[in-house]
Specification:
By secondary structure, this protein is α/β, with parallel strands linked by helices. The chain is built from four helices and eight strands, in the order E-E-E-E-H-E-E-H-E-H-E-H. About 40% of the residues lie in helices and about 30% in strands. The model has no long low-confidence stretch (mean pLDDT about 90).
Length: about 140
Amino acid sequence: MSTSAKLSPIGETYNTKYYRGPEDIIVVMPQAELKDDADSARVNMQFQIAYAESVGRPCGVVVVISRLVGQDAEARKIYSDAMDPKLFFATALVVGNALSRAIASFFMGLSRPRNSTRIVESVEAGIEWLETQRPEVRA
């Protein structure tokens, strides 16, 4: 991934690594072949919420869905419910194959995310789109 030079590690959970992209963008990199379930979703949302709160303004999130091999309904609900627009202004879901496209489509269609969400083909495309979604910061 050519963006990796611009990404700084910010932490990890037992199955996901997190990076800071430009400004207030979080890049979520699940471990390869992860089967995402409710326990995984809770741990990962706790991390993302804590990070967004530490930034002090809403963050954009790029999730590399193409690393998943499955995601159950409870995990989708946890992510959807926890994506509070006060903490997360938008989410980009990176897909790279038919399975990840199906997982992303299920998330968007069945879970009805609380913030603007788009399927993209790369981390770079996700960051570019998120930069157009960022709310104006008032001093």
